[in-house]
Write a structure and sequence with these properties.
Helix content of chain B: over 70%
Distance between the termini of chain A: 46 Å
Largest interface: A-B, 46 and 53 residues
Number of strands of chain A: 0
Number of strands of chain B: 2
Strand content of chain B: under 5%
Mean pLDDT of chain A: 85
Distance between the termini of chain B: 10 Å
Largest sheet of chain B: 2 strands, antiparallel
Largest sheet of chain A: none
Shape of chain A: elongated
Shape of chain B: globular
Structural class of chain A: mainly alpha
Radius of gyration of chain A: 23 Å
Oligomer: heterodimer
Chain lengths: 292, 324
């Protein structure tokens, strides 16, 4: 074996593989990942389960689960296939969860970075605005935004993003406050690099890991917010949604409680997946801080 | 004296936040399709354009936007939230009518979440890594993922439909002439399920925080000293560990109060409780924007007051903190 080869063999493992090794150690986090893969698979195969429209009539109304093979999980009071609703609902939930998290984190990064980097009165003003957003009960603000913007899918995503940016903004601001005085930032500044470039190219990459870990928490909250809106009948009526299925199930709760229970379990498992993953990532990124 | 100073300073800090919220609700009202006069005219079933013009002038809606903002803010500062065309009453009257129910729900939920949450968390920490701990922690994760409306509906199925133990909704039995303790008992029965479904998520959070916090505090020197001096396990837990371990729970309580208040919208709707949350939902359905903005403003004030009280409580719990 040549020297060169042996060196490659003992090269330190990459950052990702270290992360993965640490992540794997947490069995609950692996379970979260498995659950997420299942939900992703449901979203991906929704077209095979119900190629036409999950909201169409698929059989007799109120067929109980496990009694008819055409509709394995039964049907609701309008004869809609619950299984198809669950699979297509996975698409809606994931789509809204992911995109509104991106919206929330983008706003959060922008506000937090500017606030933490410049400090002074800019920081004061932006922090008061953040506090104002945190003071207004977020679900009430969400209702107001949906009432004003209307409840199409895009508007719901924007509204959910608008009510959830404050936590990432505070996180990013704290990172920027601790990073802005570091030597590499001073060095860049002395080289004549502009503020925007320092913020986005120098500091931001170093401030991102905790934000990315936190993203799974926002994802879980976004999915819960969407399901609550849809439950109240304020969601986009053109898309299958777990929350909406539960809302419809409320009317037949006495005779057919499975109509509300099945989509509810889907929400619980999906949100559980994201919180378990978030915890696992957190432990993998901060191995020393051993929490619970 | 320092106490008074502290309270004053907190009050001054709250002013800019309140001003931003005022401007925010004004912007939302401007963004919403239609204004007060449109609502009024719609309510009257149409009117002639000259009359509409005069109404606009009367409401100051012909003024420049900044002037309108000023008028709006001076009104809000006097707790004048305008007229609700749905309820045919001033918004403030309707809000005051509903505030009590929501505050009752908040108090019972917070009490339940904090007391049971910290108790379970403390038990889990004292038996860390045992079966009890695992069961409590797993339950916590499931509670945390459970949407309140789903939990509420499932409780209705179990406790109202199947077992018939608890009332399905409302705040009291309607054709009832209960007085004194019977009335209190009746309201309490109606509040059990709403409280449980609203507080379970927070119970789970406080439980996990308390577990971590007790584990941390239990290792500190002063606890070992107390133990060496012969303090019993119970005394150690209550007097030495719990008191300090509660601090992070109290902090989180302040941060999350506004979220809990927001959660009341869904829970009050599920259980048809006549509170602010249910009112907010109806306001959206009926497009009663004045009402919705009034709720935003009033609930923000509630959040600020509660946070203020929590700060005082925090200072009371942690004597190291001086109110300066």
């Amino acid at each position: 074996m040549s020297v060169l080869e042996s060196e490659i063999g003992t090269a330190p493992p990459s950052g990702w593989s270290v992360m993965w090794t640490r992540y794997k150690r947490n069995r609950a986090a692996v379970l979260g990942l498995v659950l997420l893969v299942i939900v992703l698979a449901m979203a991906a195969t929704a077209g095979f389960v119900e190629p036409v429209d999950p909201l169409r009539r698929a059989g007799d109304p109120l067929v109980p689960p496990f009694t008819d093979w055409a509709t394995p999980l039964g049907t609701d009071q309008l004869g809609r296939d619950i299984l198809a609703g669950i699979f297509h609902g996975a698409r809606t939930s994931l789509l809204i969860g992911i995109v509104s998290t991106v919206v929330a984190i983008s706003i959060g990064i922008l506000v937090g970075a500017i606030s933490g980097y410049f400090g002074g009165w800019i920081d004061d003003v932006l922090m008061r605005v953040t506090e104002a957003f945190q003071t207004i009960p977020n679900f009430v603000l969400l209702l107001a935004l949906v009432a004003i913007l209307g409840s199409s899918l895009q508007n719901m995503i924007i509204a959910i993003g608008i009510v959830s940016w404050t936590a990432p903004a505070r996180l990013v601001r704290a990172e920027f406050l601790s990073l802005r005085g570091r030597e590499f930032v001073e060095a860049a500044r002395n080289l004549g690099v502009g503020d925007a470039a320092i913020i986005f190219r120098e500091i931001l990459p170093n401030a991102l890991p905790p934000v990315i870990v936190f993203a799974s928490v926002i994802m879980a909250i976004s999915i819960l917010l969407e399901s609550a809106l849809a439950f109240l009948g304020l969601g986009d009526p053109n898309f299958a949604s777990w929350g909406n299925m539960i809302g419809a199930g409320k009317a037949v709760l006495r005779s057919a409680w499975y109509c509300a229970a099945i989509p509810g379990i889907a929400i619980v498992l999906t949100v559980l997946a994201f919180s378990l993953i978030g915890e696992g990532l957190n432990e993998a990124v901060n191995p020393r801080q051993k929490k619970s | 004296m320092s106490m008074l100073n502290y309270m004053l300073r907190r009050l001054v800090q709250a002013i800019p936040v309140m001003l931003i919220i005022m401007v925010g609700t004004f912007l939302l009202l401007k963004l919403a399709p239609g204004d007060t006069v449109d609502a009024l005219v719609g309510d009257m079933g149409g009117a002639d354009p000259r009359f509409i013009e005069r109404l606009r002038a009367e409401y100051g809606l012909d003024q420049p936007v900044l002037m309108q903002l000023w008028i709006y803010m001076t009104k809000l500062a006097r707790f004048d939230f305008g007229w609700s065309f749905v309820h045919e009453q001033p918004v403030m009257t309707v809000l005051m009518d509903r505030l009590g129910t929501t505050l009752l729900l908040m108090i019972s939920s917070l009490f339940f979440a904090v007391s049971i949450g910290s108790l379970l968390g403390a038990i889990a920490a004292r038996k860390a890594y045992s079966l009890t701990d695992n069961i409590i922690s797993t339950l916590g994760l499931v509670f945390y993922a459970m949407p309140s409306f789903f939990l509420g509906l499932m409780m209705i199925v179990l406790f109202s439909v199947k077992l018939g133990w608890l009332p399905v909704g409302g705040i009291q039995t309607i054709p009832s002439f209960y007085e004194g303790w019977d009335y209190v008992k009746d309201v309490a029965l109606h509040l059990i399920m709403p409280t449980a479904s609203l507080s379970l998520i927070y119970l789970a959070l406080y439980m996990r925080l308390m577990r971590t916090s007790v584990l941390e505090v239990a290792d500190l020197d002063y606890v070992r000293t107390a133990r060496a001096k012969g303090a019993g396990e119970w005394r150690l837990m209550v007097h030495h560990i719990m008191r300090n371990a509660l601090l992070p729970v109290v902090t989180l309580l302040g941060v999350q109060f506004s979220t809990i208040l927001g959660g009341s919208v869904v829970v009050e709707t599920v259980f048809s409780l006549p509170g602010l949350g249910e009112l907010a939902y109806k306001a959206v359905i009926q497009r009663d924007m004045n009402m919705l903005m009034g709720i935003i403003f009033l609930s923000s004030i509630v959040v600020i007051v509660v946070n203020f009280l929590i700060d005082l409580l925090y200072a009371r719990l942690d004597s190291r903190i001086e109110l300066t």
